[in-house]
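Field: COMPLEX_INPUT
Field: COMPONENT_COUNT = two
Field: RESIDUE_TOTAL = 411
Field: MODE = joint
Values follow.
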Amino acid sequence: MSWQRPNHPVWREVALRWLCLAVMALGCSLAVQAELPYALIGQSAPDFALRAAVGGNARLSEHRGEVVVLSFWSSRCTPCRTQLAALNRSLTTYHSAGLAMFGIGVDDDPAQARDFARSASVSFALLLDPAKGVSRSYQVDNLPMTVLIDRSGTVRTVLRDYSPENEQLYLQQLRALLNE
Amino acid sequence: MLQMTRAMSEADEAPRRAAPVALLAPLLAVVLLAAAAPAAPGAPPAGPAATTPAAAASAPAPPAAEANSPLATSSAAAESSPDTRGLDQEIQDLKKDVVDLNRDLFILEEELLFPANTQVAVFLSVDVGQFFGLDSVQLKIDRKEVINYLYTPREVEALLKGGVQRLYLGNLKVGGHELVAFFNGKGPNERAYKRGASLRFEKGVGAKYLELKIDDRQKKLQPEFEIKDWE
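Field: COMPLEX_OUTPUT
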């Protein structure tokens, strides 16, 4: 029964195969999640009014006529910080073309979200949604999640993750909306 | 020694061959199921089991043993799922239509039973606003919250320029009622400031107009909150 030892090559091989399969399964599930349809595409964007972590309150309907980007974030989400910085760069470039941007924090603890908002040096308003009413109405199922709303207030695009490829896609979509 | 090594290697080889097969079979099945389950609606089915629904449909009813087999079950599910999804969609659309119709009928009923000239309207105005920066207003009528409104800087600016906002419009029974308003914002020295004001009023048959006024009291260097009843 010497083959039952945990450090035996058989078990190492089995463990390696399990690991490979688990990684494959995870990849499959992520790919499936990325392709999930978003029910709000083509629908009117749900209106909201939220308190900002820093600065004044914001209401979506006040920005009708502008292209609006909503980015849902959390203080526990590491890619969110990178994404907010990338969004801030795009806002600097396209602000004069009629772009408005809001980050919506989904943290339960507003104090934690405020700390995150103060540390994230972005020029757009970071709003707080501790009750998660807005997150529910926008069907947030992944963080970071970015929703692009056109000038007529219709949801046009959703990006459920952040990566350099996604950033390129985001910029393409944004330019297209700004040119409409 | 050589024999012993050979014997050990043979003994090792058996579980080496058997263990991965035994362990990988259920995992492979789980992975395949996970990949097959969330397939997009309307997507063409993949795999040999799913490529034969037409043949299965044209063939006579299979025996019970065959029908109970997992392959037959998955094939039947793949065959019936598009129809079921279509039916579900139709039911959902129908439900939505019913809800929309119900809402329209409710609005129509409200308009007929309670026309605008018999309703209660509550307005809000801000004068000067030097000692108070408005953030939100909570309105309660007869101890029931009817509105909780959050103000943006643009809205506050519009109010400071003389705008009057209709905060609430609703129906109330004829008789006595109590209105309570809570004002949240920043008071003198940028401190969080919350104040309330209340008014008991009599609702008659006709319309009722009430105004929440935020004013500055220069003598006390404090804001003043007042509810005015427009007769």
